[in-house]
Amino acid sequence: MAKGILYVMTTVVPGLIKIGKTGSSNYEQRMYNLEKNGYSNVVGLKRCFAIEVEDYDEKERLLDEIFSKSRVENTELFAIDVNLAMRLLSSFEGKQIYPTNQSKDEVFDTATANSDIALIPEGTYYFERKIKAWDGNVVTGSMEVKNGKFIVKKGSFICPVEGKGNSSSVHNLRKELKIKNNVLQEDVKLTSPSAAGGLLIGAACNGWSNWKDASGKTLDYYRNKRAHKD
């Protein structure tokens, strides 16, 4: 099976993206040409995600079929949410080529959060969880959802014990936090509610079910409610 790279790029037109393929040795040159010269009279192309996969011709045909109704005729341009495309490509088996500062799991989580953030009312949400590995101590925190960001607030209580499954970026961020007596001394912006929860407990966390508003409703409640309504 032939190995090659599938990629996703945004364009200067909001909501219009390019999905394409290229040989493994041609990726950087292809990106340079597209970002410099544009594609099919559309400019402002910027790379978002790229992955090297086996049988890339067949996988590109699969993507074309899935997004066929959103395709601009006779082009590789699609009128779809870039986060949807990134979620799909990051679920493929293969070697991630771009971005280099996030894992595939982190790309998927970020794309999911960016897709779902519009479903979540802006405001303050709260976290409370007993940590068995920390002698049963309780982690508590608050998070502001605003302008597409998840902001863990100063004063949140941080677990000093490192557990399992946290993303590398959150793990490294925890090492740089300003903390005094396990209390966060500054606001911290995260890309997803799960990353925000992982920041507090030092381990993998489903933030959609753990963060709640003042009435006790989870982020998942609002995400599901809006999705079913639409």
Keywords:
230 residues; alpha+beta; five-stranded antiparallel sheet; four-stranded antiparallel sheet; 8 helices; 11 strands; 33% helix
Protein described:
With 230 residues, the protein is of the alpha+beta class. The protein has eight helices and eleven strands. The strands form three sheets. A five-stranded antiparallel β-sheet has the order 4-2-1-3-5, sandwiched between helices. Strand 6 and strand 7 form a beta hairpin. It is elongated.
**Which overall shape is indicated by the principal axes computed on the Cα atoms?**
elongated
Approximate helicity band: 25-40%
Low-confidence stretches: none
Strand content range: 25-35%
How much is the radius of gyration in Å? 20 Å
**For the largest beta sheet, what order do the strands appear in spatially?**
4-2-1-3-5
SSE order in H/E notation? EEHEHEHEHEEEHEEEHHH
What's the number of extended β-strand segments? 11
Main sheet attributes: strand count, strand direction, barrel closure: 5 strands, antiparallel
Distance from first to last alpha carbon:
41 Å
Q: How would you state the average pLDDT, rounded?
A: 91
Quaternary structure: single chain
Helices, by number, come to: 8
Class based on secondary structure composition and strand pairing = alpha+beta
